[in-house]
Amino acid sequence: MPPALEEAGTLVVGASQAGVQLAASLRQLGDTAPITLVGAETHPPYQRPPLSKEFLAGTATQDGLAFRNTSYYADHDIELVCGERVVDVALPAGNRPGLARTSSGRELPFARLALTVGARPRRLDVPGADLDGILYLRDLDDAVALRDRLTDASRVVVVGGGFIGLEAAAAARAQGKDVVVVEAADRLVGRAVAPVVSDFLRQAHERRGSTVLLSTGVVGFRGTDGRVDGVLLADGRALPADLVMVGIGVVPRTELAEQLGLECDGGIVVDAHARTSAPSVVAAGDCTVLPHPLTGEGRVRLESVPSAVAQATLAAATLVGREATTRSVPWFWSNQGDLKLQIAGLSTGFDEHVVRGDPDTESFSVLYYRSGALLAVDAVNAPADYLAVRKALTQEIALPAEAVADAGTPLKTLLTAPTA
């Protein structure tokens, strides 16, 4: 007989960064009800950011990626279910618990539901896309396969000039591979940074020996005996390749949310407390779209560990009836070999930017403004500028554009200056 509603506890679907944080936060808040954390991968929950950075470069091991030690979940009465994908969910009704079913037929009752299901790689739908040697990078198995294939590869083509693509390109180039990055847009990382940063990244990767092709589409792949040996471009060229890594973005996993009738719009729509359109269901992480974390205006989707952690913490508080509101400054980072890009804030909608330092030195920052208000910073090998702007955004301290242009003046000295 299924348990009564009050005995069913919380089901967290998705053993992701957000999922682990949500379960841990419930326990930290004193919640003693059962918690079941279910993930589709066979691996215990692990960190994803190092997959395209330290792990691919060979400086991090699989064992070092785990969020928690093996005893953590049992010690905190969290039932961890790995290798099971939830395919069907019914919400609680009356005193009847909700019920989730996995692809193997396992049934998981619950009183409260959290969706932390993440996103999946966007696939490139062109002829030859199923050839061996064309890989994506999202999970640990992807990273292991890519790292193993890099050992024997000599000519690597990276399709997509976003953060993941550039990180993978840097790792491949550091191993002596011939690397070509193919980007359909007219600049690298165009959704996230200003043209000055895009231009710097292109030049920096080219200085290190990679080839970067902009405004270039991929129309297919060529292969021999079922294995890729060339990338076909829209302009008629064919790039030789014995390994292709495709990194053209991700698609939020909204299937369960749609099945439940939750509002979805480029992701699962949540409010500032991580509530979905169904009051009994919360969601957190890459699968969601949420109000701008600083202004509350519009909807944004944030693909970052800090944002997932902050949102999952809010979701746990919501589940236990302690709605919390915090000012959370989004922050991100991208390690591309010896280049470290750190971002604080969201630059979308900027109408002015200030460059501090000389990009040719490979240590500079770009501060973004709208109507005179500070929005964000991109800092390349300039951690002091990143930290200062993050503090300014968190504490709502003004950093006027006219005051920050002199790279010889540390930004931290301006944080205590009187503001108009």
Topology record:
Elements: H1 5-8, E1 10-13, H2 17-28, E2 35-38, H3 54-57, H4 72-75, E3 78-81, E4 86-90, E5 98-102, E6 107-110, E7 112-115, E8 119-121, E9 134-136, H5 140-152, E10 155-159, H6 163-174, E11 178-182, H7 195-207, E12 211-213, E13 218-224, E14 227-233, E15 238-240, E16 243-246, E17 250-252, H8 255-259, E18 268-269, E19 281-283, E20 288-291, E21 299-300, H9 305-319, E22 331-336, E23 339-345, E24 352-356, E25 364-370, E26 373-380, H10 383-395, H11 401-404
Parallel strand pairs: 1-2, 1-7, 2-3, 7-19, 9-16, 10-11, 10-16, 11-12, 18-20
Antiparallel strand pairs: 4-5, 5-6, 8-17, 13-14, 14-15, 20-21, 22-23, 23-26, 24-25, 25-26
Protein model, in words:
The protein is of the alpha/beta class and 420 residues long. The chain folds into 3 domains: 5-120 and 251-319, FAD/NAD(P)-binding domain, CATH 3.50.50; 123-248, FAD/NAD(P)-binding domain (3-Layer(bba) Sandwich); 338-414, FAD/NAD-linked reductase, C-terminal dimerisation domain (Enolase-like, domain 1, 2-Layer Sandwich), CATH 3.30.390. 24% of the residues lie in helices and 28% in strands. It contains 11 helices and 26 strands. It has helices at residues 5-8, 17-28, 54-57, 72-75, 140-152, 163-174, 195-207, 255-259, 305-319, 383-395, 401-404; strands at residues 10-13, 35-38, 78-81, 86-90, 98-102, 107-110, 112-115, 119-121, 134-136, 155-159, 178-182, 211-213, 218-224, 227-233, 238-240, 243-246, 250-252, 268-269, 281-283, 288-291, 299-300, 331-336, 339-345, 352-356, 364-370, 373-380. The strands form 7 sheets. It has a 5-stranded parallel β-sheet. A hairpin with a 7-residue loop joins strand 4 and strand 5 (98-102). The longest helix is centred in the last third of the chain and has 15 residues, at 305-319. The radius of gyration is 23 Å and the shape is globular. The termini are far apart.
